[in-house]
Specification:
This protein has helices spanning about 15-25, 70-80, 100-110, 120-125, 145-155, 210-215, 225-230, 235-255, 255-265, 270-280, 300-305, 320-325, 340-345, 360-365, 385-395, 405-415, 425-435, and strands at about 5-10, 30-35, 65, 85-90, 110-115, 135-140, 170, 195, 285-290, 305-310, 330-335, 350, 380-385. It has about 450 residues and is α/β, with parallel strands linked by helices. α13 (about 340-345) links the parallel β11 and β12 (about 350).
Length: about 450
């Protein structure tokens, strides 16, 4: 009897990073079990990402087990470990997530597999204690990102992490989302649309100064409307959120007005949306805005957009965003990780560069570079604009001025996505592990 491969999912949107591997293992007839751990904090702004809400056709074929306490999930793993070949997760073992003792580490030794999902893996190593002896595997997108992460950790993390040791096995497999089922080579665009991914506003993400966020987009947000419409919150709760928002947002703007006044008056979300709208009208494109429910956004979108996607991110493999990107011509964002999906669909990416003032630390700023030939600024693949430059130039452009160069695209895909069009990333992971899947 074959041992089973176990996948741990904390939020619905995590499924997109695991689905290629799950799909491949299923096709290879490897027994699979998915363990879902729901968020215990009912007041979390990510409550809507509860994994119980996950919808995907592949789930019908796979055993699922649901937990509401992390200790119960851990005890389940301990009880069934003899029948488990590998445990796939997006996170490393840490004291924040598990009760760590020598017995548990010995049980999962050489079984724990972490799948790379952007820079979040490196941020976890910075924020949590991960230096434990259990010999995990780390499936990285590309050599570029693995080396980038190691350098970033060495510069900004003054403690030992699992990366500091020889107790981790690195495997380069390509972008974890890649599956030929989703990123179809022969897909023909059914509509001429432009997708805008708004700047993510959330005061709770910043320990101190959020003056840029307040001036750039916060001043346009009606919290009462947002919570009533999108989160079905009570009238009292929504009013209280609006009052708190007005007071804190105004205070932050006044406190640092000399630093952020140009964003307050000129270089802000309102002007960006108007500029995109003008470009779409000029080039006969449908203007689609895809906000995320965890980030409050302004009502003004309804004035300018042809379509606003209300997505609770429960639908995965493919996600609603992936379906929209597949039908689009251009995707615009602010340091959005969707640049990788956009590139894998071979669509035009435009990045609006987030200014230094928006970052709350040197380490967070160092996760992004806008220099030429970086993932956020790559000639004829990802077009990078500073805010003022975007406002001055973008709506004057013709769509013919924005094109993808095939050779440049191949270089981008190779360096930043590491995918092979003939092989799913899940297949690469399977080939790395198949000798142990017995």
């Amino acid at each position: 009897m074959k041992k089973k491969a176990v996948f741990i999912i904390y939020r619905t949107n995590e499924f997109k990073y695991l689905s290629s591997t799950i799909d491949t293992f299923y096709k290879k007839k490897i027994p699979i079990e998915i363990l879902f751990l729901s968020n215990e904090d009912k007041n979390s702004f990510k409550y809507y990402l509860d994994p119980k809400r996950l919808k995907s056709s592949i789930l019908k074929k796979i055993k699922r087990v649901y937990f509401t306490k992390s200790i119960k999930l851990q005890n389940y793993i301990i009880k069934n470990i003899k029948n488990i070949s590998f445990i796939f997760s997006l996170v490393f073992i840490s004291e924040n997530r598990f009760l760590i003792d020598k017995k548990f580490l010995n049980l999962i030794k050489n079984k724990w597999c972490v799948i790379n999902h952007g820079t979040d893996n490196f941020a976890q190593l910075k924020d949590e204690k991960t230096d434990f002896d259990y010999n995990p595997f780390f499936f990285a997108d590309t050599n570029y990102y693995l080396n980038f992460g190691k350098k970033w950790l060495k510069k900004f993390v003054n403690k030992r992490t699992i990366f500091s040791t020889k107790k981790i096995k690195f495997k380069i497999v390509g972008n974890s989302m890649y599956s030929k089922k989703i990123f179809k080579k022969d897909f023909k665009s059914k509509s001429d649309s432009l997708i805008y991914l708004p700047y993510p506003y959330l005061k709770e993400r910043y320990n101190a100064d959020f003056s840029f966020q307040a001036a750039f987009v916060g001043r346009f947000i009606d919290m009462y409307y947002f919570y009533r419409k999108y989160h079905k919150a009570s009238i009292f709760y929504s009013i209280s959120k609006q009052i708190i928002h007005i007071l804190s947002n105004t205070y932050e703007i006044l406190k640092n007005f000399t630093l952020i006044k140009k964003y307050y008056y000129f270089e802000n979300e309102y002007q960006i949306v108007k500029t995109i709208s003008n470009f779409c009208k000029k080039n006969n494109l449908k203007f689609v805005i895809k906000p995320r429910l965890k980030f409050p956004f302004p009502k003004l979108y309804y004035k300018y957009a042809d379509k606003i996607i209300n997505d609770d991110e429960s639908k995965q493999f493919p996600s609603l965003l992936q379906q929209e990107i597949a039908k689009s011509k251009i995707v615009i964002g602010h340091n959005s990780s969707a640049i990788y999906e956009t590139a894998m669909f071979k669509k035009i990416s435009i990045n609006i560069e987030v200014p230094k003032i928006a970052f709350h630390s040197k380490s967070s700023k160092a996760l992004f570079t806008f220099l030429p030939n970086s993932e956020w600024n790559f000639s004829k693949v990802v077009y990078n604009f500073k805010i003022k430059e975007f406002l001055d130039k973008f709506d004057k452009l013709n769509i013919k001025n924005l094109e993808i160069d095939n050779n440049q695209h191949k270089k981008y895909i190779s360096k930043f996505c590491g995918i092979s069009e003939n092989q799913d990333t899940g297949e690469k992971i399977y080939n790395e592990m198949k000798n142990y899947l017995k």
